Amino acid sequence: MTIGYLGPNGSFTSQAAAYFASESSIISYSSIATCLRALEKNELDYAIVPVENSIEGTVNVAIDFIYHHLAVPIQCELVLPIHQQLMVHPNFKHSWQDNIVKIVSHPQALAQTQTFLADNFPHSQQLTTESTTSACELIVNHQDDCWAAVASKAASEAFNLTIVCSDIQDNQNNETRFWLLGKETFKLTDKSSCFIRQTLGISWSNNQPGDLHRILSVFSWRQIDLSKIESRPLRTKLGEYYFLIDILVDNPRLIDLALEELAALDCDIKILGTYPVYYGENS
């Protein structure tokens, strides 16, 4: 069994992958798109990607690739607490204050720490990388420059960097949802899930006024609990969208009936997966 993840080792996604498999079974990829493309080409058994953060919201590149390109279901979800650290090369562990020229990280990590960075490093340039651990690699490769990375504690240990500011995320309840996708059912025998969720993508071939109301009413009168609804561009033309909907699965029969009604209303329905949700430990 192989699981692809957004790497390198030490990224938050690598920690999520390690929740489901041993280190020898997980394979690093440089971007979310290349990881999902490898799954699509059957080069992997599973892929794990971040899909939503409690501060920054949806990871659009993951959601849109899954909806538009991938015919592989979600098998599990993992929710991980995310703790961001500011780290420098050991060469600057005593001289980093007032000297940090650049701060590098994944766009989501920078967004999750904007208040801290604006308050403490208003004049430092921010650069984005493919992952938080790619930022750590940059620091190692620029050891003569006072650059800082925003990444996990595990990443600092993997690259032998010095943490100079701890837990710098703007919200101390920072969490990220990760989806494990694959063609075969994935079962965890040693862990208990908290609940079952189903994710749908719903659209119309011709958008009409009241489309969203019609969707919501189908679920509302059946008292089906929706935990998320979001619109994303349908990529057909400007102003056309699909709706991404998360459902807390309590009564599967009621959900089936709701989907039958939506189909009768000429909705295009894509079930992205019905899957257990797990909560991991602090990262």
Describe the structure concisely for a colleague.
With 283 residues, this protein is α/β, with parallel strands linked by helices.
Notable traits:
Alpha-Beta Plaits; aromatic amino acid biosynthesis; 283 residues; 5-stranded mixed β-sheet; 9 helices; 3 domains; 15 strands; Chor_mutase/pphenate_deHydtase; single chain; D-Maltodextrin-Binding Protein, domain 2; alpha/beta
Chart the SSEs and their pairings.
Elements lengths: L2 E4 L5 H9 L5 E4 L2 H9 L5 E8 L3 E2 L1 H10 L4 E8 L3 E4 L13 E4 L1 H6 L1 H7 L4 E4 L3 H10 L5 E5 L1 H6 L3 E4 L9 E8 L12 E9 L7 H10 L5 E8 L7 E8 L3 H13 L3 E12 L4
Parallel strand pairs: 1-2, 1-3, 5-15, 7-8, 7-9
Antiparallel strand pairs: 3-4, 3-11, 5-11, 6-9, 6-10, 12-14, 12-15, 13-14
Helix pairs in contact: 2-3, 8-9
